[in-house]
Write a structure and sequence with these properties.
Blueprint: E1 2-5, H1 10-21, E2 27-30, H2 40-43, E3 51-55, E4 58-61, H3 63-72, H4 83-110, H5 119-139, H6 153-168, H7 173-176, H8 178-187, H9 191-194
Parallel strand pairs: 1-2
Antiparallel strand pairs: 1-3, 3-4
Helix pairs in contact: 1-3, 1-6, 4-5, 4-6
Length: about 200
Amino acid sequence: MKLYGSPFSPYARKARVLIIEKNIQCEFVAEDPWTADTAIPAMNPLGKVPVLELAPGNYLFESPQVVHYLDHLDGKPLPPQDAAGYWEAQRWQALGNGIIDAVIARILESRRPADKQMPEKMQREEARIARALKLAAEMYDGGEFLVGKKFSLADAVMGVALQYIDIRYPHDWRGRYPALAKWCARITARKSFMATMPDGFARVE
């Protein structure tokens, strides 16, 4: 298998973290979907990463599907398996994915020509991020992991999301939510996060 994606893509990074956590044999191929000569549209008509190549000409795309496939590949998906824990982990993933979406929307707006930028769009995305952080801090119970007593997809997605804020929208959310910040520092010290940190960016403690 091969995973295609940009080293800076948080969507691809979620899959890369999972691959390391589960010790899956899968080659990562750096591919920028924004370049004129990118091969991504030939694999994914939507032109987005990550793309998981299962075999020549056989591809999966959209990060939730890619992550779901990788998690179930060995028949032993990450915990929790009980209904309540499963849906709690799903809620954390939805929140983390929403944070990533909002950060990306904000950065894309900031890259538009100055005379075409919409301040209200920037403010809307920043408000979405602020509300999501507030809810995350309220949901977090102080444990080592977000759901239960073992690493789950909730930890993978939220860890990537919070670090993506640091990379693309740095501000002092840690000062406001110190307990969540301590959790983030612990989870992102794992090998899977350290190995997938984009070049040029330092991990924030």
